[in-house]
């Protein structure tokens, strides 16, 4: 069965080396597993993300992007390294997603930077972020410095891309079933209902938990 | 269907003049706005409750008592009364006193309050917000319905043979709404008691509230209070009007752009597209408000936020004139059209008393002749 692979890239340039790395990872994964690939460029959502921070609710197109990520079978998340860590835009996107919504999601993490000196951002910032969200991060994380783009096809980057893609492809069917909640809202087949945010404990049970008499 | 206004009670600098009203100015302005609401034919005035600057209304029944003495018809309400941090015994007493003084023109809306630091000032913890709302309201509900209350719970000292005085007018408690922005637990609570549910939809998109109100309506029916269509729903809305739409936008934009709750985020245009905020002509306000019925079903109470974003009192009073003269009369007519007969009107004391008496009469009839009723 075809899986849904979503790529989130926080590159800002046009063209962007972050997007380039994201595309290589997506293509390599797509070669190993049958997957529909959707790319989300956070640059295009920068205003929507900032506004969600202020208002507390997503614009329709940000909501679509968040829904795509939370309902995916696999995620490739790629950020440029800014000031020693993932970019603020990258972090902000994941800040506006419900912290339960990525549980069990297989994730391939990758980053780009000017030099290889920052490559541990993947292990010291990206991996803990997704661990907090209880996503399943594949063992191989891919870092591409400027010098890697100059290496030939047999170089280290291509090898790491292939290894990481194999690891993600193997997990694409592994995400546990998510609850299909909310019998009140419109059902959209194939999409887990909004983290069943309308699920409710029957009132008698809420009262009983407090042991209020009468 | 009832129409009214609700006020947050914020002291906000007018961004066009740099002038900040004093607390006294703001309190008097809130009263002037309430009196104006009655003058222009609105049904309800509701005040917020806050315990931190820049807000003034920490003592709603004091203000509402004063307004009650100067009005004849206006229903006095809250938006909201903090059921988490107030002692439910004091809420029962304060609002029963107001209920008596105002000849029954009182209802109230329960809310939790979302400002973490306020809770410990009253000896509470925001992490217990929902359990506090559940337990405290269970006690309040009992205090207004039982003369002698024995009670024990997690959050306050027990009561034995306690009678809350005065009793509500005519022995019929004030109608209660439960206000919520995002919590399905509160929709469930409102449904359980057959109380009203006020979806404060002013800052969020309608899809969310469609689901929240849908949940409330379903659960209202589940608990045997009537059909989903008979559930008692209130909605918010916020508007700024001028005769010409462009004038409204030009005048309101600096207020929007700088207001603590609106500003520095989405543009005015984006915000009006996604939330109930309407900045335009009276006709645009009418159209937007009528669209609420399409989204949420026939409902009972529409409250508008009018004194927002630091608008000066003079402007707010002009807005209320427009609302009362040009908008609400049309809305009353339009909402009445095609409204199913079984959908209840907005709650009033008289209606609650009549229902109580009818229920008593029905019970007596059944006791007198059970066969006939079964047939």
Automatic annotation (TrEMBL), chain A:
Region (Disordered): 175-196
Domain NADPH-dependent FMN reductase-like: 4-149
GO molecular-function terms, A-Z: oxidoreductase activity
Gene3D superfamilies from the UniProt entry: 3.40.50.360
Keyword line: Flavoprotein, FMN, Oxidoreductase
A Pfam family matched in the record: FMN_red
InterPro entries linked: CE1759_FMN_reduct, Flavoprotein-like_sf, FMN_Rdtase-like_dom, NAD(P)H-dep_FMN_reductase
Source domain of life: Bacteria
NCBIfam families recorded: LLM_duo_CE1759 (TIGR04037)
Protein name: FMN reductase
Record organism: Actinacidiphila yanglinensis
Native organism taxonomy: Bacteria, Bacillati, Actinomycetota, Actinomycetes, Kitasatosporales
UniProtKB/TrEMBL annotation, chain B:
Entries under Pfam families matching the protein: Bac_luciferase (PF00296)
GO molecular function: monooxygenase activity; oxidoreductase activity, acting on paired donors, with incorporation or reduction of molecular oxygen
Region (Disordered): 356-375
GO cellular component, one term: cytosol
Domain of life: Bacteria
UniProt keyword terms in alphabetical order: Monooxygenase, Oxidoreductase
Domain Luciferase-like: 1-297
Entry-linked PANTHER family: BLR5498 PROTEIN, LUCIFERASE-LIKE MONOOXYGENASE
Protein name as catalogued: Putative luciferase-like monooxygenase, FMN-dependent, CE1758 family
